[in-house]
Design goal:
The chain is of the alpha+beta class and about 525 residues long. It is about 40% helix and about 20% strand. α1 (about 15-25) runs parallel beside α7 and α3 packs across α16 (about 505-534).
């Protein structure tokens, strides 16, 4: 039967569930475009993982789309501004020089000018990111991406956020239920009822309540209650490419309230993995991502303890609370089956390098909200397109993350040596590296409008880690035609960087100013409510 879509049931809370519920409800508010009921069902007994603390710039559009104030978001989640990632010790070329930056901003004039050709010919004494974008200078100085007076979501240089995942989920919960009309139900699923055609008809809870729906969104995390448990969609491991399958996470307080907040995620390579270091307003979030096949749990925790001692003098690392998160890197080829679609961990997960998890949640939820099938017949078409889109994204994510390991020169452990073996590298990446030895990446290497990683991202990693092609492209007619224009653009990078350094506040100064402003507005609203009640 061609049933209309009247009720969307999101199964599971956390960031994935609440982002999905907010986006769908914001797109179909009550009384507009026909009535759509959005229900979120959450188990009171299953805690969320809560360590996804880094976002991409796409999160700004998501927050605007659901109607959240940026200032209120920063105040409620303890967020700070993220402008990219800085890597330490990944290249294996030794010493203090083994660091590079992957900023969020594209190189200047990137649509018409490939800066890699000019850097390879003229600028190798300057780090690549410094050569092509003023954001590298902003990051190095710990500056914010905009001024205090800049409107919400506007920017001088592109940015995402670092945030407290638990507080973010709570804010999304309150907004969905309080402002967008999402119905919230607590309970554990005890039975799944099906229509004769195989669609999910309803979920029966331990409370006895029956929750019926037309589209079910599986946000049950690694349990994958619907997509895996009910429909049996196979999980495809990518562990032969991406070895990491464990993370030890810890929260570290600042030594004092005025300590600088880094403008990037810091990613420091270890003997069998790497440590993330994320600065929020009130604390730092750290984690050691590693391969259990290359290091045992005790040694992995010791490496994290040493990192805490090194970066947080005066902090007793033994007094902090550590927790280990196990995961299998991989994804499901068909995250949408019949009237069930998986979002978040239930659809797949690979290591948190480059913070792709929340970006994929946004992508998935955005498609569901933007292309919500009005009836069952349309749903099959949307599902086919969704599965193709997500499959493409997963393949590109695996390739891009593997790039960080495959071109490293580190040989101090089996982990890094194994990462360079040809059979641990996806075929698509091997082909790209062969091509890039002849020519720098550009638009043809990331041709889709919805690419998660533009070709500039490949350039930042390749040349940051010391990759050098056999040819620079300086012998081409196009290079010579664009040379004068390139000199102007690259001079503009330096001038803009100096100007931004003078005008932008520090990351902490901007975060504190926004939090103070949001706090004052909260007090004003409360006083207004008290006045109205009296």
């Amino acid at each position: 039967m061609n049933r209309p879509t009247r009720t969307v049931v999101v199964v599971g809370g956390g960031t994935a569930g609440w982002i999905t519920a907010n986006l769908v409800a914001a797109e179909y508010p009550p009384g507009e475009n026909g009535f759509l009921r959005v229900v979120l069902l959450e188990s009171p007994d299953i805690p969320t993982i809560g360590v996804g603390e880094g976002t991409w710039p796409s999160m700004r559009a998501t927050l605007q789309r659901i109607g959240l104030s940026e200032n209120e978001f920063i105040r409620a989640t303890g967020a700070s501004f993220k402008q990219g990632t800085r890597f330490f010790g990944w290249a294996g070329n030794g010493g203090d020089a083994d660091t590079y930056c992957h900023p969020f901003s594209l190189p200047l004039e990137y649509t018409s000018l490939n800066p890699a050709r000019y850097w390879l010919e003229q600028g190798r004494n300057t780090p690549f990111a410094d050569f092509v974008t003023p954001q590298a200078r902003v990051i190095a100085q710990g500056l914010a991406p905009k001024q205090v007076e800049t409107p919400e979501y506007a920017f001088t240089v592109n940015y995402g956020y670092h945030l407290d995942a638990g507080k973010f989920a709570a804010l999304l919960h309150a907004h969905a239920v309080g402002s967008l009309g999402v119905e919230y139900i607590e309970g554990n699923v005890r039975k799944i009822e099906s229509h004769p055609d195989g669609d999910v008809a309803a979920l029966v809870l331990n409370t006895g309540e029956r929750v019926g729906g037309d589209l079910f969104v599986d946000c049950t995390g690694q349990r994958a209650l619907l997509i895996g448990g009910h429909y049996g969609e196979r999980f495809q491991s990518v562990k032969k490419f991406l070895f990491n399958d464990r993370a030890i996470a810890v929260q570290v307080p600042y030594a004092d309230g005025g300590e600088a907040i880094a403008s990037v995620t810091r990613a420091t390579a270890q003997s069998a993995g790497w440590v993330w270091d994320i600065g929020l307003g009130a604390r730092r979030g750290l984690g050691h991502v590693h391969s259990s096949a290359h290091i045992d749990e005790e040694a992995a925790q010791l490496a994290l303890l040493r990192y805490v001692e090194w970066t947080s003098p005066g902090t007793d690392p033994d007094s902090l609370g550590y927790r280990t998160i196990a995961f299998e890197p991989g994804y499901r080829r068909a995250p949408w089956i019949r009237n069930c679609v998986a979002v978040g961990l239930s659809a797949g997960f690979v290591e948190p390098l480059e913070a792709s998890a929340l970006a994929l949640i946004e992508q998935s939820a955005g498609v569901i909200a933007g292309q919500l099938p009005r009836d069952r017949q349309v749903m099959d078409v949307v599902a086919t397109r969704f599965n193709a889109k997500m499959g493409y994204h997963w393949e590109r994510i695996v390739e891009f993350l593997k790039l960080h390991y495959a071109i490293s020169l580190r040989d101090d452990s089996e982990y890094w040596v194994d990462n360079r073996q040809a059979d641990s590298c996806p075929e698509g990446l091997r082909e790209k590296l062969t091509l890039w030895r002849q020519q720098p990446p550009w638009h043809d290497d990331a041709p889709r409008v919805d690419e998660l990683f533009p070709s500039a991202s490949y350039q930042y990693v390749l040349y940051g880690m010391g990759f050098r092609p056999c040819h620079t492209g300086a012998d081409t007619a196009h290079y010579n035609r664009m040379r004068e224009r390139a000199d102007e653009v690259l001079q503009g990078v330096r001038e803009q960087g100096r100007r931004m350094e003078r005008l932008l506040p520090t990351n902490r100064e901007l975060v504190c100013a926004i939090a103070q402003r949001a706090g004052e507005r909260a007090v004003q609203r409360e006083r207004k409510r008290e006045s109205e009640r009296s």
